[in-house]
Amino acid sequence: MIEEKKFVTHYRFAFIDEATKREIRRKLLKAIAIPGYQVPYSSPEMPIARGWGTGGLHVTLAIIGPKDIFKIIDQGSDASVNACNLRNFVQTMTGVETTLDTSKATIIQTRHRITEEVLNENQIFVYQVPQPEPLRSVERYENKTRQMHGEADYAKMWVSLYEQFVRHGDIMLGAGYPVKVNGRYIMAPSPIPRWDIPNLNNSKAIHLFGAGREKRLYAVPPYTKVEPLEFEDVKFHIEDFKGTPCFRTGYKKAFLDELYYDDGSKHYVINDSNFLDKLVNKELPQQHENSYLNKLGNEV
Amino acid sequence: MQPILEIVNLNKSFTMHILQGKIIEALVDVNFSVAEGEIIGLTGKSGSGKSSLMKCIYRTYLSEGGKILFQSNEGTIDIAAAGDNEILHLRKTEINYCSQFLSVIPRVSALQVVAQPLLKKGVTADLANEKAMQTLKALGLQETLWSGFPVTFSGGEQQRINVARAIIDPPKLLLIDEPTASLDPKTKEVVIEMLLALKKLGSTIVCISHDEFTLDHLVNRRIHLDKGIIIN
Amino acid sequence: MKYNSENWLLKVEGLTKIYGNPTQTSIDKTGPLFDSNICPDSGSIVACAQIDFELYPGEVLGIVGESGSGKSTIVKMLYFDMEASGGKVLFNRDPYIGKNILNLSNQSKRAIRNHLMGMVYQNPRDGLNFRFTSGGNIAEKLIMAGNYNVGTIRDKSKQLLEKTEVPVPRLDDLPAHFSGGMQQRVQISKAIANHPPLLFLDEVTTGLDVSVQAKVLDLIRELQQELGVAMIVVSHDLSVIRMLTDRTLVMKNGRIVEKGLTDQILQDPQHPYTQLLVSSIL
Fold first, then answer.
1. CA closest to A233 among chain C residues
2. pLDDT at B181
3. Which pLDDT band, with edges at 50, 70 and 90, does B118 fall under?
4. Phi-psi bin for B231: left (phi > 0), alpha (psi -120 to 50), beta?
5. Is residue A7's pLDDT more than 70?
6. Per-window interface: C 113-152 vs A, CB < 8 A
7. Which residue of C has its CA nearest to A170?
8. Which residue has the higher pLDDT, A221 or C281?
9. Strand locations in chain C (E)
10. Cβ neighbour number for residue C219 with a 10 Å cutoff
């Protein structure tokens, strides 16, 4: 019987072998040393397919330790199928405590959202990235985009923003708005909504980005300047919910989802599931502060 | 007083490589000098070397041996030996050349052609055009033609424009080839008057002409060429 | 206005481009005397060699020659589109004075290209990005020079289009929808956007209809007079050279066979090849 065979039947801590973990960690250190710069890495094979979060998983598994508390969200929700599966996988491979509470987690892996609740100096935020190259839309060739980054030759990117303004009256990028990190590299912040972009700037947490399919890692260390690309007279702005309150809590200052309920009615509800839960339980989680949110005033 | 222009042992021949290296001699041992303010007339039949001599002075032709000493505002220059850029500078500032036939950019108006030397110098468009209009009027070119393209004009009309362009900005040395050809007697007189007026302003003129009337009324001294040699 | 022979803008010494593996004799065994660019020993191709010339501010220099003469190669190397095999190029503008610009870092080369040079190609697709509007193409140059204000960028672009007689309402149209002549004029607008002291024109009217060619050449002449920009005009057409240039280099098999004042080259050509070219004008 197969159980009687003398195979290795246990997994290493965090699934990835130690040598690969070391390689990923070294690349992460390089990424932190050069904020916004894409570092190529080995991107080892995982039990999930490419395009399903392997990059984020690589980062998490390389840095996680037995005492970490792990949270994972998918488009703001802890409860989606993929979030649950990945949480189970990490838990099985490491035995760490998992949580849904943003303030308790030490490592938060995310797909396409930053939490509404503010992050602190003990937290590491890990992003799953589909396309790490912000210039891909204006330049097809990898050797050219690498040269453009190396020489800080971003004119084509700026012209494409200008062209959008000319054609549509505004810059039309909704998710994944390109940002300039530490005044040097232009970075793709993964397809987070505009709402989240200002929360990268001067953040207390470490932000690590993993693109498994494209085999790139990059990072934004704490207290780093992250500025969305804008012209002097065509400025960046966040989504405008026009004062619409959350259907379940009445809160007006969070990123909203448009949901269709079973009875067919359409309602707007806060996207970040943990933030929503806390508000429903009458707890007051501390939200990020940035100049764009502050303009909305205090609405609870 | 040093002559403004001194030609010493000037020789010019053409080597036609396409005709198996056939050599045609244009100028042989030419020597003469021109004092400042003089008007010299070069005479001789066709092929005697008059145009070649002028073109050597203007450096369109490269001469062999010999010197072409010119007293420019910045000292004596041997035009035969000077570098290309120095010649360009001289042409812009001190020496003008007026060819026998008007050779013009196709779609530039007559007025613009005449105003160009002033515009190149930095004179404002209004002043330049004003002066151009005065000059063309004096030379008798109809006003209706001022905005026309010279390439469509008659020989006489083109000649008026040619002369106007050469004299609108008085140069130190003017080289002018057949200034009065194809002009009626009245306009001939106007041109001669204008050239004499240039002389009063201090210009020195070397001109080629077949026309006895022009030579009599304009020129101080004649130099006659025959088969590239001066006969006087 | 005193004449100053040290006032050159661009000085080129021994500019060379060789493809393949050259030997010591590659340059000696190629050229107009051998009627060939290909070295008989190593098979390497000497696209151009021993190129020396100076360009003064506001001057127009023509480079004329037939296909394979190396004229476009020179301009491509000066504009950094192509890597040179050897030689020295000095550009008399701060902070590059005294430095061989061929050996500068890519960053410096790009800065020179953006601020001090403009290039107009024979094929508009080489000089323009057809996915951007004509205004966007000009904007690219303005942004590279540090303009990040959309209003200012659009105003400047409109002025430049007016200057090159492109109808201003076409600012937001794609160049793919323009005629060949208008595409060239948009290229010219883009090239002069940052008021560079040096402009390269590589066979810019070749292939255009005669009337369109005349219009583009007129424009170039007017701009040259108005802006006083130094130009290097590459053409195989002597009438273009006659119309635009003060001085000319004649090239054959990658070498300069004659250089001089344009009127001298056309009326008193010295070199047999120049005489052949001049006598071939229709």
1. C149
2. 81
3. confident
4. beta
5. no
6. 129, 132-133, 135-137, 139-140, 143-144, 148-151
7. C150
8. A221
9. 10-19, 45-55, 60-65, 86-91, 117-120, 198-202, 230-235, 247-252, 255-261
10. 17
Hey, of C143, C149, C153, which one would you mutate to test binding to chain A, going by the most A CBs within 10 A of its CB? C143
Overall residue count recorded for chain C in this entry? 282
Domains in chain A: ranges and CATH = 18-228 (3.40.50.11310)
pLDDT-above-70 percentage for chain B: 100
Name the β-bridge partners of A266.
A260
Q: What is the pLDDT of residues B165-206, one digit of tens each?
A: 888 888 999 999 988 887 888 888 888 988 998 898 889 999
Which chain C residues have a beta carbon less than 8 Å from that of A232?
Answer: 148-150
* Residue C57 contacts B, CB cutoff 8 Å: no
CB contact A233 to C (< 8 Å)? yes
Q: Which residues contact C43 (CB under 8 A, 6 or more apart)?
A: C20
Q: Name which of A251-265, B154-168, C90-104 the model is least confident about.
A: B154-168
> Is the pLDDT score of C207 beyond 90?
no
Q: What is the pLDDT of residue C282?
A: 67
Q: Do C148 and A151 touch (CB under 8 A)?
A: no
Q: Is the ipTM, as predicted for this complex, more than 0.95?
A: no
CB C159 within 8 A of CB C151: no
- Bridge-based pairing of strands C10-19 and C45-55 is antiparallel
Q: Do C264 and B85 touch (CB under 8 A)?
A: no
Identify the closest residue of chain C to B105 by CA–CA distance: C243
Could you give the dihedral angle defined by the CA atoms of residues A157, A162, A163 and A167, in that order, rounded to the nearest 10 degrees? 150
Instruction: Give the neighbours of chain B: at least 3 Cβ pairs within 8 Å.
Output: C
Measured between alpha carbons, how far is A45 from C22 in angstroms, rounded to an integer? 48
* Rounded percentage of chain B residues whose pLDDT exceeds 90: 35
Chain C CB contacts of B106 under 8 Å are 214
Phi, psi of A69 (to 5 degrees): -115, 120
- Among residues A33, A35, A30, A28, the alpha carbon closest in space to that of A200 is found at A35
User: How many residue pairs bridge chain A and chain C with CB atoms within 8 Å of each other?
Assistant: 48
Q: Which of C24, C72, C70, C65 is nearest to C44 (CA)?
A: C24
Report the C-alpha gap between A169 and C257 in whole angstroms: 56
User: Measured between CA atoms, how close is B216 to chain C, in angstroms?
Assistant: 31
Whether the CB-CB separation of A92 and A75 falls below 8 Å is answered with no
Mean confidence (pLDDT) of chain C: 91
Q: Which chains touch A (3 or more CB pairs under 8 A)?
A: C
How confident is the model over C110-130, as a mean pLDDT? Answer: 92
CB neighbours of C33 closer than 8 A, spacing ≥ 6? none
Nearest by CB: A151 against C110, C135, C137: C110
Residue B121 has pLDDT above 90, yes or no: no
d(CA A216, CA A296) in angstroms, rounded, equals 36
Please list, in sequence order, all residues whose beta carbon lies within 8 angstroms of the beta carbon of residue A2, skipping any fewer than 6 positions away. none
- Please check the confidence at residue A8 and state whether its pLDDT lies above 70: no
| Chains A and C, touching by 3 or more CB pairs within 8 angstroms | yes
pTM of the model: 0.86
pLDDT digits (tens, 9 = 90+) for B28-57: 999 989 999 999 999 998 888 899 999 999
Which site among B14, B17, B57, B123 would you substitute to test the C interface, given the most C Cβ atoms closer than 10 Å to its Cβ?
A: B17
Q: Could you tell me the CA-to-CA distances from A281 to A249, A250, A268, A275, B24 in Å, in that order?
A: 10, 13, 19, 10, 109
- Name residues whose C-beta falls within 8 Å of residue A111's C-beta, 6 or more positions apart in sequence: A53, A56, A73, A74, A75, A82, A83, A127, A128
Q: List phi, psi (to 5°) of A28.
A: -65, -40
Q: At what angle do helices C150-163 and C134-144 cross, to 10 degrees?
A: 120
By C-alpha distance, the chain B residue nearest C271 is B17
Q: Which residue of B has its CA nearest to C279?
A: B18
Tell me the nearest-neighbour CA distance from B144 into chain C, angstroms.
23
